[in-house]
């Protein structure tokens, strides 16, 4: 297990957010990835319904997650959806991802969030095993999407 510093980014942490996007680019094999304008990225960090947690090792972002707060009408307590989570490949399976999940769960519990959830592809056994190992409970759902850019 590798000990890293877990940090919830604030609006002052744009450079670390950009570092995390680089981790996503590498791990998700998204090269070449056209980085959005820094003003846009800053506007995301300024929002109260967008969360970024990073894992820092030797002063560098090596992992992280992004999440969105979803306000409900069934309950006054919101939900949080983990959108992306990645750990640099050479540091995977060393407890870093688990510490990120624990950190966002702890933060959300303190804020009165009802539930944290995340999606994983059925074909991605590694992700399924990872989320199960962190205490996640699987549901049988089908995800539909509507591609609007075609």
From TrEMBL:
Q: Which InterPro entries match?
A: Acyl_CoA_acyltransferase, GNAT_dom
Q: Which domain of life is it from?
A: Bacteria
Q: Where are the transmembrane segments?
A: none
Q: Which residues form the N-acetyltransferase domain?
A: 4-150
Designated name of the protein? GNAT family N-acetyltransferase
- Taxonomic lineage of this organism? Bacteria, Pseudomonadati, Spirochaetota, Spirochaetia, Leptospirales
